[in-house]
Amino acid sequence: MENETLESLGEFGLIDRIKNNTTLYHNETILGIGDDAAVIDNGDSFTLVSTDLLLEGVHFDLTYTPLKHLGYKAVAVNVSDIAAMNGVPLQITVSIAISNRFGLSDIDEIYEGINAACEAYNIDLVGGDTSSSRSGLIISVSAIGKVQKDKIAYRSGAKANDIVCVTGDLGAAYMGLQVLEREKQEFSANPNMQPKIEDKSYLVGRQLRPEGRTDIVHDLNEIGVVPTSMIDISDGLASEILHLSKHSQKGFTVFFENIPIENSTLETSSEFSLNPIASIISGGEDYELLMTIRQEDFEKIKKIAEITPIGFVTDEIENWLVLNSGEKTKIVAQGWK
Ligand code: ADP
Ligand code: MG
After folding, report:
1. Taking the CA atoms of the chain, what radius of gyration do you get in angstroms?
2. Which of ligand 1's atoms lies nearest the C-alpha of 234?
3. Local mean pLDDT, 10-residue blocks, the chain (337 residues)
4. Distance from CA of residue 147 to its chain's centroid?
5. Which of 146, 312, 297 is nearest to 220 (CA)?
6. Do 115 and 155 contact (CB within 8 A), yes or no?
7. Which of 15, 17, 30, 242 for a ligand 1 pocket mutation test, highest count of atoms within 8 Å of Cβ?
8. Interval between CA 231 and ligand 2 midpoint (Å)
9. pTM, to two decimals
10. CB-side exposure of 109: number of CA atoms within 13 Å?
């Protein structure tokens, strides 16, 4: 299209455009742009590669984000993309750009978080790049992982009648962000106030210090289940359902009443007069896994308490959320503009 603009494309349209203008030259490149990680054949197994970029003022706000947590999160979100391929992370590289607002102790704090994540996930920090920045802090992490060839889970493998499952609980990270934003506003109005986030610690923790679900990859391996498709929930359940639907060319029907939600998520949503369905379906940064599994694996999946079935896959490519009233609402695209 001649009059295509960045605005009309949006994030996903832009990525599709970059992908369509890309040529792959190597047979070893099994999968390039388009999934949670690139897939490279290394003979015995597949190597996985993923990258994420975190920008101050866009992805994080340093008025309420401790630098140590930021370092940890920058690693965890990449671990999450490796886990979404059913893989195990092995190495990371970390690139940072720092403005003159930051001192040595700040950098030390960021790396304390990065090193804590490396220990938690058993990852080696093997390189990166360092630069000055004119506008705030930038952190980019790339992760390298691996997966046995017959265990890989793409976005594209969902089949009709598969069971749709999610890990953990959803919506808490988004509500944590709302709590932090409210505290920030109240603090700027009245700097003497004491933060009152004690009872919101679960939500705030989910926002500031998410975890990549490598534990689930381990559990799936133990029970001998390979998901037919999988993605991590970084942009909200609705958006990730649409990704699996598009890549698999199948439809998804999920039931709101089956979605695991912490009480404090719902309580805080109503306290803030937010639509609970929108908060849970579209609120991002849970870094849980959304997967589809074969019907015959259902009994095995029951052994993993952290995995919850929420719906099923259909041949008809339409995506529905069934509300508690029984009413159905179509899941529509969101994403960043
Ligand atoms: P995720 O949310 O899982 O990190 P993204 O939506 O950021 O995934 O990216 C989707 C796919 O597009 C990935 O394969 C990613 O590597 C690729 N991608 C994103 N931005 C670019 C870019 N600027 N150039 C090339 N590939 C990109
Ligand atoms: Mg992802």
Report:
1. 20
2. 2
3. 79 91 97 97 97 95 96 98 98 97 96 98 98 95 98 98 98 96 87 72 96 98 98 96 97 98 96 93 95 98 97 98 95 63
4. 19
5. 297
6. no
7. 15
8. 6
9. 0.95
10. 12
